[in-house]
Amino acid sequence: MMTTLVWLGRDLRLADNPALIDAAAAGALVPIFIWSPEEEGGWAPGAASRWWLHHSLKSLERDLIERGSRLIVKRGPASQALVAAARECGAEAVAWNRCYEPAALRQEQAVRGALDAAGVSAQAHEGNVLFAPDAIRTLNGGPYRVFTPYWNRCGAEAGPAAPRGEADRLRLPARLPKSVPLEELRLLPKVAWGTGLQDAFTPGEAGARRDFESFLAGPIRGYAADRNFPASGGGSRLSPRLHFGELSVRRVWREALGGDPAAKGGFLGELGWRDFGRHVLFHHPATPDSPLDARFASFRWRRDAKGLAAWKQGLTGYPLVDAGMRELWATGFMHNRVRMVVASFLTKDLLIDWREGARWFWDTLVDADLASNTLGWQWAAGCGADAAPFFRIFNPVEQGKRFDAAGEYTRRWVPELAALPDRWLHQPWEAPAEILTAAKVVLGKTYPAPIVDHKVARVRALEVFGATGKAR
Q1: Which residue in 329, 360, 362, 377 is the catalytic one?
Q2: Set 301, 327, 356, 379: catalytic member
Q3: So what's the pLDDT on residue 250?
């Protein structure tokens, strides 16, 4: 009976896990997770991601035990750990599902070389994307830099592979590799907001299934209309599930597509954006640290420590911006519309380097994903693939009035403004003195005055971007 090590990374699930299913069909298997932050090329998981990873691994460990298996945990480097584990249990093969981040590809190359030298078979599978990023090409054979033609090209393909269900039986070999207790990895951060994350999410495959089924039962029907309103509950909130592979993206695609075509309303396109981010990152691996648009390589971003700190803390004086940043700190998540608003504010109103925002999101988001994070921040700054034009600058007041008109979202996260009437909620500095007094708002004390005048900042941004030839 053949024994296979199943190397788990961004596929912390049992259902539609190609590497695990094929290994189970071939004989005995040993699920193994390797913690190797030193191989991440400067992008090791941030604090919120480590929190999620710890609890997702605990959930997976319980699921495996229920099926008569167990999870082996090792420290990296991955190539050394996998060869050692294969020797310990007599494995003839190592199987995994591919991840297309630059560090993961380098790690995979090192693993293949080490396994080949040790006489162990290497088996890579597709299980984390709809379309492999190296499979979609322009007519000239190059990569895409604009989403719409990319997605149209994907639409001309046969479609994503069908999800495969779950392995019928998980058999362990006679000998198991030694395992490190999960707690010894010290993934859990020391910051105080761990409780808030726990209140907002339940990591693990079972929680992912519940969230997806709830989304299919209701919100997906109004997704196109509701997704931009942060208080509506119209988003899917599946991004951390997909990032850690608790849900198969192929299953999400197939089941969303299987309902009323009118009900899916753009949701499948959001899955397309997820794949597009991986496509861009695969072909431009330097973009997490460098702009895709070379004209931005010498762009003179402002150094503003006070402004950056106010942005991080949700103390900018712009209620929608502050609500988003406080939601992020409290829950490890932020509504997508609000992500665009806060990113525009940092890069356009404050003219602070998009990489500062990307790093903060990387550390505080439970769904921090290198491809999506990079794509989103470069889009906001105007320096990436399919980027927003330099003159597109979100007005935080008008965004609040349009997408949180009743103030439900803003009042939840900025409670010191809760008593302000809707008319003044998104621009409290414009409210008459008697209104502020009645609402017990003292600008500069109970809530900050705006750290920048948006109208002035917009003119400044247009001048800076335009003068440096960044107009598209």
Answers
A1: 377
A2: 301
A3: 95
Instruction: State residue 471's pLDDT score.
Output: 45
According to the model, what pLDDT value does residue 224 have?
Answer: 87
| Domain-embedded: residue 82 | yes
Examine the residue annotation and report whether 362 is marked as an active-site residue of this protein.
Answer: no
Give per-residue pLDDT as tens, 320-364. 999 999 999 999 999 999 999 999 999 999 999 999 999 999 999
User: Which residue, of 283, 305, 332, is where some domain finishes?
Assistant: 283
97, part of any domain: yes
| Per-residue pLDDT at 261 | 55
pLDDT attached to residue 365? 97
The question of whether 336 is a catalytic residue gets the answer yes
Choose the catalytic residue: 92, 166, 270, 429: 270
pLDDT in tens, 205-246: 999 999 999 999 989 988 988 999 999 988 999 999 999 999
| Token couple for 252 | 């999400």
- Tell whether 133 and 271 lie within a shared domain: yes
Question: Per-residue pLDDT tens for 362-397?
Answer: 999 999 999 999 999 999 999 999 887 778 899 999
CATH number for the domain including 245? 1.25.40.80
Phi, psi of 93 (to 5 degrees): -150, 155
∠337-289-188 over CA atoms, to 5°?
Answer: 70
Single out the catalytic residue among 311, 354, 413, 424.
354
**Which structural domain, as residue segments, surrounds residue 236?**
129-162+204-283
Annotated catalytic residue: which of 92, 166, 336, 429? Answer: 336
Q: Closest by alpha carbon to 6, among 24, 208, 16?
A: 24
What pLDDT is attached to residue 281? 98
Q: Is residue 71 part of a domain?
A: yes
My answer on whether 109 and 14 are in the same domain is: yes
Active site residue 354: yes
Same domain, 34 and 136: no
Whether the Cβ atoms of residue 277 and residue 375 lie closer than 8 Å to each other: yes
Which pLDDT score is estimated for 158? 84
CATH number of the domain where residue 92 is located: 3.40.50.620
DSSP readout, 52-94? HHHHHHHHHHHHHHHTT---EEEES-HHHHHHHHHHHHT-SEE
The CB density around residue 313, as the number of other CB atoms within 10 Å, is: 13
Q: Is 51 an annotated catalytic residue?
A: no
Residue 472: the pLDDT is: 44
Residue 189 in domain: no
Residues of the chain with pLDDT under 70: 192-194, 259-265, 467-472
Active site residue 270: yes
Q: In total, how many domains does the chain have?
A: 3
Nearest-angstrom CA–CA distance, 29 and 72: 11
User: Which residue among 127, 148, 177 closes a domain?
Assistant: 127
Confirm whether 273 is a catalytic residue.
yes
Same-domain pairing of 224 and 85 = no
